[in-house]
Structure formats: structure tokens, C-alpha cells
Design a protein that fits this description.
Aspartate Aminotransferase, domain 2; 9 helices; homodimer; alpha/beta; three-stranded antiparallel beta sheet; globular; 2 domains; 35% helix; Aspartate Aminotransferase, domain 1
Chain lengths: 358, 358
């Protein structure tokens, strides 16, 4: 039985992508070799990475001047690589603190230059997205986290900024259309909407590079990846391949508009149920609710039933619904690839549970 | 038809490993989810990484005090991470230059401390392994490359050293027994003997860590990986899984002694043919010939036949035999997983070719 996979990441991938990936791991396109044992310099992988780059450019609608890079080390590596590559010691970068990951990005950046945290919801356990803050004109960049996986908040409108935006889009990358022009750099660990764990996409605008004075090791210099088309050394072949398959799936299913339509429909089912159901309640400001990670807990008087409900979800083939320890309760991650039927099954179970226990 | 895969890396993996990997990509152990969409914090992957660590320790026979870490970024990332973590600016590390990769390691290290290149075969296009050099007692470590993929040379005996050895074992990791005690740090990109591209194993002795004064970003500090058992952030789940399967295969097939026996037998077939066949000749000092990458060219008077022979290998289902551009001719990579039958097929073709063209 195929499970309902609500995991926060690594997360559900489209069924046809998994089928194709499985075939490629045994015998890639019938050539008699597994993709796992193919040279990254051969014609097969060259075609894969070129298609992946072209698909990202097409799907987002990237203007000229942006480079698509395939790195490793996750968003956590970008937390320091960004200031290392973009910020001199006497310069200041602005950061908005909307969660543990933004907090780590801030901490890592402080070793490379001045960090100005211009807004934060830390004191309120990150239950909302700060708005209306002033962005200093002399900042080198403004760092944002577009979706906060742990808390279930999402930036539904990017602020107008006098400086380039740098954004961690790990958990909502390619889930909705957006205007790329204000962004100097976008990064995303693949393991949410894009692919399996093992690769990180960085999209960087040419003019962001080459302004720092410090020494950069070759593998930490974005320009190495630009110059060598992400092939300076052996890249993570299979994770990039599976990401390319997912990109094909996104395009085939309506691109970013199609993804947004799917994701809005799924989120509506679940948020409606949370708001309607007397046993459950959401955990964050309504206007900042994420379409990717839907966090909810039980109303105080039913709190003792949390374990029981979680058990029932598991008995019904639903996995990954336990909330993060810093929020508690439940978290349903509803990434691009999650079918509407999975969300409906969860909402139905919540209704049924309320009928029996309410 | 299954090909004879002589690729230098990413390289051939054992057939049962590929079969198991393919299954896991679709439905991991029948649980109804692909390994590509499973949380790295769940019981499935926890068991995988723990087994992988235990297998490396068992197969090598690592004494207490060594940590097995799973990183990303390849050996090229280790080229700077090693001096960054081990070498202060006023300290000196000794390096032996035996190829392009050692050369890059030297270049990257120079940004972090003093580098003393105590021996080199660069002027002779790396056709031999320097020996009999003096290792300075005050060096922080001695960096070696145990096998040089491009040139086909291998260190058959590690030098007795008054300082800890640091070794790039990317292309002969787990291909033969060795005494781990002189090593302070061993590293290897997985994509030769261990697994697919996408993960790098670092084995580090506890006493090597914590002696540098510079700031280390969390993701560049080996201690982060030690402390969090390589799970500080999302690791490359699938590459680690396939590596674990390969480790199981190594143990099942006689461990490092079994691998060495296989590799010696394969190399003997091919080197004997190279030495016997009037059309071909080896390219490196006999005593330094690699058991992993066997480089050979055509004798000068037959040089015009190189392209023809390469075509014949391809027509016979052999892939990856074109030599690296800096050596020319042919390179047969004969990693652990390559069956003896593949090497025999190549030797037979060389004999047949000589009969027809000699």
C-alpha cells in the first residue's frame, strides 16, 4: 500500500519520478549501465544537467544574468557561503529572523561581516512573519526565509527592497510563481519540492559575485561553479537526475501556476477543517499560514487526545504528521507532490475523530 | 546487455547493490515509501547510517578514537577543509605531490598555513611515486594520495612517518588491507570503490581535532559531524544508503583481503597482457603500478591504431577505456566491483587485435 507521506523533508516525490529513478538506478535508458555508475563527464549526465538548468530557467522565467548552480551541503552550507561570497568585513547585511533556520543563517553570517537583524518574531516563537520593517539602503543584501518549515509560516508577499534579496527558499521552492528580478541569490536544499537529499540549488545573479576581498577556497567560490557549469568536480549525479525528473513533472503539471493551484486547493481543505473542527486549532497567524507546512495542535481541553490521534493517522497509512518538538501537535507537509487525496484523507480522519471524541 | 564498465569514476558498482538500490528507490523494504522520500531522522535511515559506520569500522579494523563521518563536496572540498581544520597559520604541513589532485590539495592548503612539498614527480608527468624523502618532524601532518587515478600510480607502501598521515584514498579506498594507526585522517569521495557520487567519507582520529584557532563555520567543522553523527543537517541519504550496501558486499566477499585478492588477480591479467603484447606498453614505473587504474598506450610504431582499438573496445561492450587527456591512450579502471571477466575480455581483445594488426 502506498502511504500518505506528510514528511517535512526529505519529502514525497511524484510517483512517476520515483518509478523513473528506480529504473535509472538499475539500467539507465536501456544502455546496460546504471546511472549510479556513469561518468559525470559522459553524454548522459551532460544532457541531464543541461536539461535541469534549462528547466529551472524556464519554469521560474529567469531573466538573463542568472546562473543556476548545483551544490551540496544543504541550506546550512549556504548560511556561511553567502556572506563569505557576498559580504566584506566592513559591510552590513540585513536579516529577517523568522525561524530556527534564519537564526542559524544570522549566526553563521556574523563571522564574515556586520549583521543587522531588522525584524524578528523570535520572542513569539516565530508564530508570525514580521512586516513593515525598514530596509537599510546601505545593506549589501536582505536575507529572507520564504517558508518556515518548523512553524508553518510563509512569506506571502516579498517586501519591496532597495537592496538585492537573498532568500532561503528550501521549503517552498517552485511551489508558486514569483518575480525573480528583486533576487540577487536564491537557494534551496532539494529535499522538499525538488528532489531527494543530496543537492542544493543556488540561483545567483552575476552582479552579486566578485565583490569580496577575502580568499575563497575553490569549492566555496560560486564563480567556480559558474565557470565549470557545476562540474568542477564530481557532482551528486543521482540527486541532480531525480531533481531534473521532478522539474519535468512540474512543467508537465502546469509549471509554477499549476503548482500554486494544487497547493492552494490542498491547503484550503486542511485549514478549513482545522478552523471548523472543535478539537483542533492552528498555531500561527492566519495571514502568514504556509501552503507547504500546515501546523496544528489540539484545543487545550482535548490535548490528552493528541497521541491517540497521531496513532490513528499512522494506522491509516499517514506518515510524518508528528509536529516538530518546538511546536508540538501535528505538522502536515503538503509539498507539490502530495496528492489532494492525501490531504482529504487527513481532513476526513479529523472529522471522523471529532465525531467520535468531541 | 550488461556492459564492461571500466570508468574511472563514478564507476562500476556491484550488480546486487544496483538491484537493491533500484528497489529502494521505488519502495524501501516494502514499507510503501521510496527511500528518496524518507526522513533522515526516521528509524530507516538511522539504521542505515549506523550500519554504514559499523561496517567501515569493522572492515578496516579501526581502533578506538576514530570517527567515521559522511560529508559532501568530494575530495576537492577536503583539500581545503583539512588545512582549515588541522593547520594553524604559523604551522607547516608536508605534502607529497603525485598528481593533479595532490597538486590541488597543495594549492588549497597554502591559504591556511605553511605548505612544504617534500617530494614530487610533477616534472616527470607523475609517472612514478617519489620515495625515500625525509619527513620533517615538526610538520603538523603529512598529506599523501594513495592512488593517482589519472596516471595509474599507487602507493604500495605507506612511509614510516614521525607525524600523522593524512591521506586522499578516493580511488583505492577499501581495495586492500592497511594499518590505520599511522593515519590521523583518511578521506575518500565515494564514487570509485564505495558508492555513487554524492558523499565523501572522512575518517578522523579524535586527537587531530580542536587545535586550530581560526573560526570554522558549523558545516566546515569536522566536530559538528562528530557531535551530530553526520546528521547536523540533512545528509545525502541515497548515496549513503548505496555505500552501505556496497560495504555489505565488501564484507560478504572477504573484506579487504578478499578485495585485494580480486584486484591483484585482475591487475595481473591486464599488466601481463600489456607487457607481453607487442602493440601496447605501460605508462608508469612498474613498481608503482596501480591495481585500480591501469594506464597503457600503444607502442610508437602502432600509435596510429589507437582510435581503432578504442572503437573495437566500444563495439565489444567496453566503456570508459579512453585514457585521460594528460596521459593519452587507454585507462582501464579495475575497482573492487569490476568482474575478472571484464578484464579478461579486454585482455582477449588486445591479443586478438595484436594477431590481426601486429
Amino acid at each position: 500500500m502506498k502511504k500518505h507521506n506528510f514528511s517535512a523533508g526529505p519529502a514525497i516525490l511524484p510517483a512517476p519520478v520515483l518509478k523513473e529513478a528506480s529504473k535509472a538506478a538499475l539500467n539507465y535508458q536501456g544502455i546496460g549501465l546504471s546511472l549510479l555508475e556513469l561518468s559525470h563527464r559522459g553524454p548522459e549526465f551532460t544532457a541531464i544537467i543541461e536539461e535541469a538548468n534549462a528547466l529551472i530557467k524556464e519554469i521560474i522565467g529567469l531573466p538573463e544574468g542568472y546562473h543556476v548552480l548545483w551544490l551540496t551541503g544543504g541550506a546550512s552550507t549556504q548560511f556561511f557561503m553567502i556572506p563569505m561570497n557576498l559580504l566584506n568585513e566592513d559591510e552590513t547585511a540585513a536579516y529577517v529572523n523568522t525561524g530556527v533556520w534564519a537564526d542559524k543563517a544570522i549566526k553563521e553570517a556574523k563571522a564574515f561581516g556586520h549583521v543587522n537583524v531588522i525584524a524578528s518574531s523570535k520572542e513569539q516563537n516565530f508564530t508570525f512573519i514580521p512586516k513593515g520593517y525598514k530596509i537599510p539602503k546601505d545593506a549589501k543584501y536582505l536575507h529572507l526565509t520564504s517558508n518556515n518549515t518548523i512553524y508553518g509560516t510563509q512569506l506571502h508577499r516579498f517586501p519591496k527592497s532597495p537592496v538585492p534579496l537573498v532568500c532561503d527558499m528550501s521549503s517552498d521552492f517552485l511551489s508558486r510563481p514569483f518575480d525573480p528580478n528583486p533576487f540577487g541569490l536564491i537557494y534551496a536544499g532539494a529535499q522538499k519540492n525538488l528532489g531527494p537529499a543530496g543537492t542544493t540549488v543556488v540561483i545567483v545573479r552575476e552582479d552579486m559575485l566578485g565583490t569580496v576581498r577575502r580568499h575563497l577556497p575553490s569549492m566555496l567560490d560560486y564563480r567556480t561553479f559558474v565557470k565549470e557549469n557545476s562540474l568542477y568536480n564530481t557532482p551528486p549525479v543521482f540527486p541532480i537526475y531525480v531533481s531534473m525528473l521532478t522539474l519535468r513533472w512540474i512543467r508537465k503539471n502546469g509549471g509554477l501556476k499549476g503548482m500554486q493551484r494544487r497547493n492552494k486547493a490542498k491547503a484550503a481543505i486542511l485549514y478549513n477543517e482545522i478552523d471548523r473542527n472543535p478539537l483542533f486549532k492552528g498555531t500561527v497567524a492566519r495571514e502568514d499560514r504556509s501552503l507547504m507546512n500546515i501546523c496544528f495542535v489540539m484545543e487545550d481541553k482535548y490535548a490528552a487526545l493528541e497521541k491517540e490521534f497521531l496513532k490513528e493517522t499512522e494506522a491509516n497509512g499517514m506518515v510524518g504528521l508528528k509536529g516538530h518538538r518546538s511546536v508540538g501537535g501535528f505538522r502536515a507537509s503538503t509539498y507539490n507532490a502530495l496528492p489532494k487525496a492525501s490531504v482529504q484523507a487527513l481532513a476526513d480522519l479529523m472529522q471522523d475523530f471529532a465525531r467520535r471524541k468531541g
